[in-house]
Amino acid sequence: MQAEADEEVSSPIDAAEFIQSNLDLLPVPAFPGIKLYTPHPGSGLRRLDSAVDEDGDSLPPYWAYVWGGGAVLVRHIQAHPEVVAGRRVLDLGSGSGIVGIAAAQCGAASVLAAETDANGLAALALNSEANGVVLSITGEDLTAGAAPEVDVVLVGDLFYAPELAVRVSAFLARCVAAGVTVLVGDPYRAHLPLGTLELVAEYEVADFGEAAGRRSGVFRFLG
């Protein structure tokens, strides 16, 4: 009996079941046409196993929140649906899936959502289903490979750490060399490679943890 109890205690938590049971499915305040599974103070996200970085340190559950870079991309896509309409789109570092969902809602021919956090993959599947859109979801680290067969790459909030910024920039350069349009959304974080970017538009959007909006940019990656 004790062995059975120990086995039950040590069993991993099913991320999809946890998200559905402990997060609320709510419209995003700034984008009411999009619903996401949203944490609240009692959600207990720490009970989920965390993803780790290159050094083995636990990463926060980035997938559970809407960040400024994703928000500014959604704002731009909704204002200019022709950016994605009829095109094959990659949402790199998809997190909650808000950017990919917006692209699908604005007429993208297909959306590939890439996310390396296993819990984020579960959230992506649930959020896309809740919004009635189809996302192709991959847990592969695409930044390690060649440019995928897409027309547009959308990148939000992937320049928050120096090593990640270097790796992502190298991948985006390969995409540009292959003829892919790359749009980056970012609230001017420290490691944003401004020297390789061309500003397309600016919007005031809220970053996670901030009530007020901040100036955030949509940029074309030049390679």
TrEMBL record:
Molecular function terms, GO-annotated: protein-lysine N-methyltransferase activity
> Can the keyword Metal-binding be found in this entry's annotation?
no
Q: What is this protein called?
A: 50S ribosomal protein L11 methyltransferase
Q: Which InterPro entries match?
A: Methyltransf_16, Ribosomal_L11_MeTrfase_PrmA, SAM-dependent_MTases_sf
- On whether Ribonucleoprotein is a keyword of this UniProt record, the answer is yes
Q: Name one GO cellular component term.
A: ribosome
Task: Name the UniProt key words of this record, in alphabetical order.
Answer: Methyltransferase, Ribonucleoprotein, Ribosomal protein, Transferase
From what organism does this protein derive?
Paradevosia shaoguanensis
Q: Which GO terms describe its biological process?
A: methylation
What the entry lists under CDD domains is as follows: AdoMet_MTases
